[in-house]
């Protein structure tokens, strides 16, 4: 069957029961004729950002920048607990430490954090990164947010997490976070998916290679290099089980820097995808049915866990985690477990949201002990419950308070 006929059949709707059974095979056949790159050019035609000629910007970014005029982009988390906001100011010096940067304010009534009658929210710089978009001496500045009375905003989970980190810094807590995400075209379908059907079943996409197996690699590669340039401790990346779904890993990071690096990595992912006219979603279950959801599996280790026979400490931590399962479910997504209800079903490589479990090399458990850790009898544990849109500060805080502080 020719490509034009295939498209016409699918766009007209799959009429017969036999064709319903075969529609996935049909779209796999289309994939062989229609590369992901070509498809992306077509489906992104409604995206204003995709239509812009980005090369024109270089005429201006190539202009000499005065030594005493540094662009600092202040970045913060809005009232949703997962949205990222930013704005830029000019500095007359190159900052070396967050304490050198001026405090700033923004309109919290436009970010779900304040009323219009008392709208100013304070931005307190806490971490500095190199800016891979503007380059030169320009900076990305991660900020905490504070109300007018100087108390942390409801979405400022970093403040509480940092208190916990300081209390256990002698334990040298390490975190490695596996951030899964999905690329969408401008009409909110996964990038490269057919308009009137589905891609072939899961199986060939995980760590796949080829235009019929992956889509959006350009964004992934650009993001990886940008994170390295910025100073984010990015550890790797791979295509995930569901087509158009990807993952990058941050860590191992010590203490609060795990959350800092992940939030900056998320900001850069959204910012770079914007250049391509593509949308990034951290929805834990972007497509209903037998498609894998998206998580932020969090690997956690302490100094005693990494020592000889550290498996004893790992098992002790798992025992403590088993007693606080509801608390962790509440802490592991921005809506107190409501998003994870759609993902943690006990299917598609997940545990059940209602039950706690643990096992060696078990990807259907709440807590997985990697095979190598069990053999070496030391190392780390992997908490597979956090949702892809979790606040990493909240996740790390919960792990510290349960596993080390034994709250």
Automatic annotation (TrEMBL):
Write out the entry's keywords from A to Z: ATP-binding, Cytoplasm, Ligase, Nucleotide-binding
Stretches assigned to the GS catalytic domain = 157-407
Per the UniProt entry, the signal peptide is none
In what residue span(s) does the GS beta-grasp domain sit? 70-150
Q: In the UniProt record, does the keyword RNA-binding occur?
A: no
Compartment list = Cytoplasm
Instruction: Extract the SUPFAM superfamilies matched here.
Output: Glutamine synthetase, N-terminal domain (SSF54368), Glutamine synthetase/guanido kinase (SSF55931)
Protein origin, superkingdom: Eukaryota
UniProt-listed GO biological process terms: glutamine biosynthetic process
Q: Which reaction does it catalyse?
A: L-glutamate + NH4(+) + ATP = L-glutamine + ADP + phosphate + H(+)
Enzyme class of the recorded protein, top EC level: ligase
Q: Name one Pfam family in it.
A: Gln-synt_C
Q: Which GO terms describe its cellular component?
A: cytoplasm
- PROSITE patterns of this UniProt entry? GLNA_1, GLNA_ATP, GS_BETA_GRASP, GS_CATALYTIC
Question: Under which EC number(s) is this enzyme classified?
Answer: 6.3.1.2
Keyword hit for NADP = no
Which GO MF terms are attached to this record?
ATP binding; glutamine synthetase activity
Per the record, the similarity remark reads: Belongs to the glutamine synthetase family.
Name of the protein: Glutamine synthetase
């Amino acid at each position: 069957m020719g490509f034009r006929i295939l498209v016409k059949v699918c766009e007209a709707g799959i009429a017969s029961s036999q064709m319903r059974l075969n529609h996935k095979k049909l779209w796999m056949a289309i994939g062989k004729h229609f590369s992901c790159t070509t498809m992306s050019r077509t489906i992104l035609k409604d995206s204003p950002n995709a239509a812009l000629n980005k090369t024109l910007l270089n005429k201006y970014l190539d202009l000499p920048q005065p030594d005493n005029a540094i662009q600092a982009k202040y970045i913060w988390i809005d009232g949703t607990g997962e949205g990222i906001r930013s704005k830029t100011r000019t500095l007359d010096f190159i900052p070396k430490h967050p304490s050198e940067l001026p405090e700033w304010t923004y309109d919290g009534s436009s970010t779900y954090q304040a009323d219009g009658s008392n709208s100013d929210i304070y931005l307190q710089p806490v971490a500095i990164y190199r800016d891979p978009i503007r380059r030169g001496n320009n900076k990305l500045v991660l900020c905490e947010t504070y109300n007018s009375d100087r108390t942390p905003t409801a979405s400022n989970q970093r403040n509480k997490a940092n208190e916990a980190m300081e209390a256990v810094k002698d334990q040298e807590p390490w975190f490695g976070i596996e951030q899964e995400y999905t690329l969408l075209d401008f009409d909110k379908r996964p990038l490269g998916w057919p308009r009137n059907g589905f891609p072939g079943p899961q199986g060939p996409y995980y760590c796949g290679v080829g235009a019929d197996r992956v889509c959006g690699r350009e964004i992934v590669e650009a993001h990886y290099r940008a994170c390295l340039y910025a100073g984010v401790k990015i550890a790797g990346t791979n295509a995930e089980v569901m087509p158009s779904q990807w993952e990058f890993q941050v860590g191992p990071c010590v203490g609060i820097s795990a959350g800092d690096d992940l939030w900056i990595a998320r900001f850069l992912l959204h910012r770079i995808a914007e250049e391509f006219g593509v949308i990034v979603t951290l929805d834990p279950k972007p497509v209903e049915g037998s498609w894998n959801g998206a998580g932020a599996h969090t690997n956690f280790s302490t100094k005693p866990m990494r020592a000889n026979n550290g498996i004893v400490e790992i098992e002790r931590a798992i025992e403590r985690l088993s007693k606080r399962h509801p608390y962790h479910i509440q802490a592991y997504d921005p809506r107190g477990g409501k998003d994870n209800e759609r993902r943690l079903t006990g299917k598609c490589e997940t545990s059940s949201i209602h039950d706690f479990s643990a096992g060696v090399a078990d990807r259907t458990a709440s807590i997985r002990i990697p095979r190598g850790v069990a053999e070496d009898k030391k190392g780390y544990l992997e908490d597979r419950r956090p949702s892809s849109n979790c606040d990493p500060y909240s996740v790390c805080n919960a792990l510290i308070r349960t596993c080390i502080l034994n709250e």
